[in-house]
Amino acid sequence: MNKIEKIYKLLFEKFREQNWWPTITSNKKFEIILGTILTQNTSWSNVEKTIKTLNLVWLISPIELKKIPEKHLAELIRSSGYYNQKAKKIKAVVEFLDSGKELTRENLLNVWGIGPETADSILLYAYEQPVFVIDAYTKRIMKRFGFKQKSYEEFQKLFHKSLKKDHKLFNEYHALFVKLGKENCRTKPLCNSCPLTDICTKNIKPSLDGNQ
Ligand code: SF4
């Protein structure tokens, strides 16, 4: 078992299934796509608030979102922050979905405001493609493990070559990293209670959580 697999095993043993991506409406796929944009630079609770608001006015729908003026949409998604930009991004994604273009990573990256993390989240969570999502939590944890990768693509390659290409595994792994990043591997890590403490190469363990 390689180190990347070992990390997953320990995280899963401790935290179990995370049931990501959490959705509340029947249009799961489109709700996930909206969520990947709304979640940028804000908390998940704000995203949930916004999704509920959009659901109340029947806007978890690309057809309906296409009709609504961008300014009106911005007002409706205010609770997610950066609402003018996010409204523009949502409009751009809706236009892309309506264009009939093939849903590939390359095409998604050509949509206004869609970067690698958002594109990969759409592919993985909405379309169940085996694409590993790299976020700030993932980078922080891997750096503390001593991995030297720097760019998004370098980190992604590491996961792609170390794991079986399985969207369910990638889905769960990313969700577990988010959980670990919130519970233990915070800006100031709580290594004592971390499920990875025995294999983490970081020598900061004895001092940073102040309990050892
Ligand atoms: S042992 Fe500490 S530094 Fe290593 S992953 Fe856990 S919380 Fe992060």
Give a description of the structure.
It is a single chain. The chain is mainly alpha-helical and about 210 residues long. The chain has helices spanning about 5-15, 30-40, 45-55, 60-65, 70-75, 85-100, 105-110, 115-125, 135-145, 150-160, 165-185, 205-210. About 60% of the residues lie in helices and about 0% in strands. The longest helix is centred in the middle third of the chain and has 17 residues, at about 85-100. Iron/sulfur cluster binds near residues 141, 185 and 194. Iron/sulfur cluster binds near residues 144, 185, 196 and 205.
Ranges with pLDDT <50 over ≥5 residues?
A: 205-212
- SSE ordering: HHHHHHHHHHHH
Counted by DSSP, the helix tally is 12
**How would you name the oligomeric state of the polypeptide chains in this document?**
single chain
Tell me the fraction of residues in β-strands, as a range.
under 5%
**Bound chemical compounds:** iron/sulfur cluster
Shape: globular
Structural class: mainly alpha
The average pLDDT score comes to: 92
| Biggest beta-sheet profile | none
- Helix share bin: 55-70%
What's the gyration radius in Å? 18 Å
**Strand segment tally:** 0
